Amino acid sequence: MKILPQIKEIHEEMTEWRHRIHMHPETAFEEYQTSDFVAEKLESFGIEVHRGLAKTGVVGTLKSGSGNRAIGLRADMDALDLQELNEFAHRSQVDGKMHGCGHDGHTVMLLGAAKYLSETKNFDGTVQFIFQPAEENVAGGRVMISDGLFEKFPVDSVYGMHNMPGFNVGEFAVRKGPMMASADFFEARITGVGGHGAFPHLTVDPVTVACDVVSGWQKIVSRNVDPLKSAVITVGEIHGGHTTNVIPEDVVIRGTTRAFDLEVQNMIERRMAQVLDGICAAHGATAEFEYDRRYAPTINTPDETDEAIAAAQELVGESCVDTDVVPVMGAEDFSWMLQERPGCYIMIANGAGEGSCHVHNPNYDFNDTILPLGASYWARLTERVLPKEAA
Ligand SMILES: [Zn+2]
Ligand SMILES: [Zn+2]
User: Fold this and answer.
1) Distance from the CA of 103 to the center of ligand 2, in angstroms?
2) Is the pTM of this model over 0.85?
């Protein structure tokens, strides 16, 4: 593994930063201490700092040479609402909150690269270091964009990275095209006519209608989606009634859908509404439907993915970069940045085997041994995409 020597030198320092952030986890749009820390570090490296985008977002701007090209490197800073079960010294000091997805490590890898790039300046153009809040659940990246991220800090391409447990330290995984799915969220309210459980003929039972709706929606996946494409419709909540012998007035159904392309996503939204309305009409019930497109599919563009692959291969060799990883139905709000600019989202291995557990597990921890590798990836990617000789 080829780690940049100047980054190897700061491994211990980066580990201290990571532990400090891990001990003080903050969730969606409340990353006050974390963003203070990030801003303070960037300033100490001589990088121009801009704050306040999406409330707690931080953008660092670093220029070198006279080139007009610009690259965006993005890390997420938020933690999870999860009680940490680890007992090591750097465990979370905040009850019910934890860096259980490794965003503490993502933040530090990008800070490490920022330090290196500010000292070496072996590139020509502008690097925008984007530290976003609220990746989990509420798509803080999307808010940064609506707050004018790319108008205020223009870039030609944008790159993201996430750690992934389950494969060996020193490996990367990526692919061109869809890497992660869209994640939309829906709520349907079915209203009938309530009444006595022994006199169903005098009611319009929203419970039986809801059962038909849930089954009907599953047929969208099996009958309307092209069998060579993929989709998920999951109902995660059904709420209705409060006692055994009363037919309730209404039932609320909530859930999530996943897809890899806009056509499938559009079709799912349209067909879910049609199936809901049709089944309700058939039984004399009425329906309200809300559908929220919260995360777009994460789609890597070909040229930028080639750059990401080349940067990773330089560090770990060809055999340690999976260039055609199987996409997953999870979602990621970096997708919104990829909707605006070409770019690539890559996975860096957090390690496999004993002691390694998946993200969002209360025993998870970001693997400090990969901090210099991730920082070196950011650094080499920047030097490749903004080469000095292009000036
Ligand atoms: Zn997560
Ligand atoms: Zn995450």
Assistant:
1) 6
2) yes
